[in-house]
Automatic annotation (TrEMBL):
Subcellular location(s) of the protein: Cell membrane; Membrane
Keywords: ATP synthesis, Cell inner membrane, Cell membrane, CF(1), Hydrogen ion transport, Ion transport, Membrane, Transport
Species assigned in the record: Grimontia sedimenti
Protein name, entry field: ATP synthase subunit delta
SUPFAM superfamilies with a match to the protein in the record: N-terminal domain of the delta subunit of the F1F0-ATP synthase
Protein encoded by which gene: atpH
Pfam families: OSCP
Coiled coil: none
Role of this protein: F(1)F(0) ATP synthase produces ATP from ADP in the presence of a proton or sodium gradient. F-type ATPases consist of two structural domains, F(1) containing the extramembraneous catalytic core and F(0) containing the membrane proton channel, linked together by a central stalk and a peripheral stalk. During catalysis, ATP synthesis in the catalytic domain of F(1) is coupled via a rotary mechanism of the central stalk subunits to proton translocation. This protein is part of the stalk that links CF(0) to CF(1). It either transmits conformational changes from CF(0) to CF(1) or is implicated in proton conduction.
Family: Belongs to the ATPase delta chain family.
Gene Ontology terms for molecular function: proton-transporting ATP synthase activity, rotational mechanism
Membrane topology: Peripheral membrane protein
Amino acid sequence: MSELTTIARPYAKAAFDLAVEKGELDQWSEMLAFAAEVARNETIADFLDGSYSAEKLTEIFLSVCGEQLNEFGQNLIKVMAENGRLKALPEVTVQFMALRRELEKQVDVEVTSAVALEQAQLDAIESKLEARLERKVKLNCSVDETLVAGVVIRAGDLIIDNSVSGRMRRLSDALQS
């Protein structure tokens, strides 16, 4: 995966810079998301794994994408096909969106709790994280009953484990040392 990340980085940065320059962040987000889904499609993935020429791959890819891509999006597909990098399109999209969130000072936060949280609890978590991270927070919530009670919050490299199972694990580690 790290190889795809390295491959995708310059394409994502170039697309992002162009989108910012033209004021088309929303349009580029949609185009890249659509192109990434096309690249993930099993039939298209078979073409990408085959020994087709860059021109043929571009033709196939653009015929599937149709009107979803503007001329700059089509140029991106052409350049990536010429360099044999179309398989990296999903990662390009991931990195593009990360650059966009950074520009917009937004962070996605995974909140895993033992039971479904009430809106007041979610609002409190959101406001405290926004103050701590100095960014707009978007909560993605899930339930994991194995936590017993409490929550685990993940925001990038930051992990706040306030679950009973996490506390028990830390207590066990402390007692064994």
